Amino acid sequence: MITMSRIALLSILFWSFGWAQADDSVPAPSNVRGAEYPRVHSDLRVTFRIKAPGAKNVQLQPGGDDNGLGKGPIEMARADDGTWSVTTPPVIPGFHYYWFLVDGLAVGDPASETYFGWAKESSGVEVPGPDADFYAVKEVPHGDVRSRWYFSKTTQKWRRAFVYTPAEYDRNPRKRYPVLYLQHGSGEDERGWSNQGHANFILDNLIAEDKAKPMIVVMEQGYATPPGVVQATATQGRGTGQPSVFEQVVVDDLIAMIDSNYRTLADRDHRAMAGLSMGGGQTLQITLTHMDKFSWIGSFSSPLRGGLDLKTAYGGAFADPAAFNKKIHLLWFGAGTGEERMLKPALAMHESLEKAGIRNVFYQSPGTAHEWHTWRRDLREFAPLLFR
Amino acid sequence: MITMSRIALLSILFWSFGWAQADDSVPAPSNVRGAEYPRVHSDLRVTFRIKAPGAKNVQLQPGGDDNGLGKGPIEMARADDGTWSVTTPPVIPGFHYYWFLVDGLAVGDPASETYFGWAKESSGVEVPGPDADFYAVKEVPHGDVRSRWYFSKTTQKWRRAFVYTPAEYDRNPRKRYPVLYLQHGSGEDERGWSNQGHANFILDNLIAEDKAKPMIVVMEQGYATPPGVVQATATQGRGTGQPSVFEQVVVDDLIAMIDSNYRTLADRDHRAMAGLSMGGGQTLQITLTHMDKFSWIGSFSSPLRGGLDLKTAYGGAFADPAAFNKKIHLLWFGAGTGEERMLKPALAMHESLEKAGIRNVFYQSPGTAHEWHTWRRDLREFAPLLFR
Fold this sequence. Notes:
By secondary structure, chain A is an alpha+beta fold.
């Protein structure tokens, strides 16, 4: 009996200090091949580690205030071998940008793959949550994500787009497909929707389950400067402040390039555009002022202006609700419940549009903030509604 | 006259100290969008810069001994604003891995794109040289580089391959194409040949000039472990030391996946394999022991064993020279004149094969070392010989 209670006591002590917790952690799927850290525990705690023997102070810095890892900087502790580590409390599932602050210097984690965000190749950690299945690579037919270079007349520069073609595309050489133009956010680029967003797996899975129509998805970079103007860095996710000719690139160059190189249904009834954050703002601007080109519209966590005058906004697109409803097949807004600064204005816009008789859909992603998990869910909800 | 000579004198002084050199430098094309540094000067000097106000010592570390930037670490100098910089002497043109050592800690350059090499996402600098045209993006028809996921029966894991389809591929839905399997080196991965190597632009340009036949190029990762074995990190470019099942992946899984998803000419006469460094060694091993599957072979800067017994090597592939010459359409070796440790054994092998009556081609890349510029040139020389 004495022995038993000792064990029980020790057990409680161990548990309190975390020593007796079975280490069921696994390397994050976002790590480079074979890297042991970051590690994700089954209760969604995450352990980060970096070797920096000469450092005096090392911190974990989640990218942005809305980051599901929590607010930074988070202090890390030094071990005798010069490694610094920290285990977070359980985090919000999804993809989170991060980096380390080594004596104040922002440093990427050499154990992480890189993900273009915050205007640099950031580290990122993928924390698989309960609903990770919908964006996982699964045993279903897979489409290709094609890297495509083209020369823009507008910018007089070469640009790269990524083009998702559905799994059946190559097997149906006469069939034509509708197109979704899908944009990233500020500080990110044309790689975001496949690398961070898993857009290809989301579409593969939806199409395999017959929940979405097979479609082409075009992912471009939301930056464009006039000829002779050097592109500024997208600093700290807050845009460049430069005049952008991205709208002209889409309308004059990109659509024509896609329609001439891929088997598209090249009309407004089969052309959608959506984007996240900055890309959502670009989507509203481009689609609502070019309704001859687009008829399906998605705004994911966009920075919407309050107090919009529905008579004059976007060139008067909303001025005649009946005409708008007839013309636009889908106007869709999404935001996460964890990102109040995007959710509130989106909800206000949704309500004022509804009040004015303009048909639109509003989706709230439960528990997620201004991060990729929100936008993955947005795509899962939005894509099935397209081209019906 | 006095004024003139003063100016001349000052001019000489300025020139000697580098003050009067017009700064004709431009941001390296390998930088992230809008980043000003690294900058490449017209005489091929390169200026690196990083802001690290709290650091006591910052050095530039080229990746590897053969690096065209020179031998590291290279000391950088601190300016009052906390930026550290160095301008190298003129460097060898091409692509060079690098990182910074900030008080001894290896740190990526936030201004650089990342390139998977040295088993991590390394920084890299592209220094355009006199022959940069052949791998440049030009106004010619462009093929797509497709990212393709597939499940490997051998490893019981998902794998990603990149597949280049030539520009004409989608326009000829009945035409079938030969295939080149093209492998990266140790510490790199399936992204290397397009990101670092510009293989797609090299092929686009060769095909547009009618110098190479339109072909499919498959770029896979040269790592594979048996089911249940966790892939180790490819440490410092020296391989993992783990037993590899890559040969089985290629022979049993990859070829079948490619042949069933792309319009290939699915026989040995239309199947080539080449690789660089570790990938070249894998190529020789796989092709020479599977001559029923491959008939075109390229070894770029491979770590070749000296004193090969031609009777028994590679399962006796060379034992009957006449039979070998009849069966294999091309056996091709390449190395740079700046990488003696790869050049000498390759040259020895070339000569001993020739002496034994085995037809093979040897190419030396002038002035380049164990780096991507050598391998870009290898591909430029090798691809035109294929499938003739």
